[in-house]
Amino acid sequence: MTSALPSSIPVSQLGLSASEAQIFHQQQQIALPNQAYPHSASTRGRGHARTSASTSRAASAASSGHGRLVLDPGSLAVLGQHFERLMAAIQNRVEQLSAQTQTSTIHQSSRAGAAMAAADAEIARFREIIRQIDELETEFDKVRHIRDIVKGFRARVDSLERKMDARGSRR
After folding, report:
1. What pTM was estimated for this model as a whole?
2. 1 band by pLDDT with thresholds 50, 70 and 90
3. CA 147 from chain center: how many Å?
4. pLDDT tens, 70-97?
């Protein structure tokens, strides 16, 4: 009975790119040889030995490098389950990396915030120093002005003193 034999198709007919076909072949090798086929186990000893042997032979041929996909329901189920586990593992890794990225971003943001706060504090301190310098310069200007006034008074006093000395010596 040839209709009971599982069929297979070349992986190239699946419309995959070369790298996708390579990944598919690798994953098929991982999934199929490591699994017991439910079809072959359930029919053993019940008169379907040819189907069981053919399924194993087709799975072996498909995974042995011939680049074929076994269309046997048991093999497809095993391969489907393998790809579901693989997709779950990939999704889990994406979630882990996303969480790590988020954590790293939060830490970087905290560090940046702390650096900005420190910079703001330094800017405020610098502005306070500049304000104090401006106050001191204003005080220096006041002192210079007072000094100039004092010099003017002193010059007047000296002039008056000389005039008085000159008047006193004339008498």
Report:
1. 0.49
2. very low
3. 66
4. 777 888 888 889 999 999 999 999 999 9
3-state DSSP call for residue 37?
A: coil
Contact 74, 37 (CB under 8 A): yes
Residue keyed to tokens 């006041």:
142
A 10 A CB-CB count for 86 gives: 14
Closest CA to 6 of 87, 92, 77: 77
End-to-end C-alpha distance for the chain, whole angstroms: 160
75 Cβ contact list (under 8 Å, min separation 6): 6, 32, 37, 39, 55, 58, 59, 62
The 3-class SS string of 42-79 reads HHCCCCCHHHHHHHHHHHHHHHCCCCEEECCHHHHHHH
| Site of tokens 């002005």 | 145
Structure tokens at 74: 């048991």
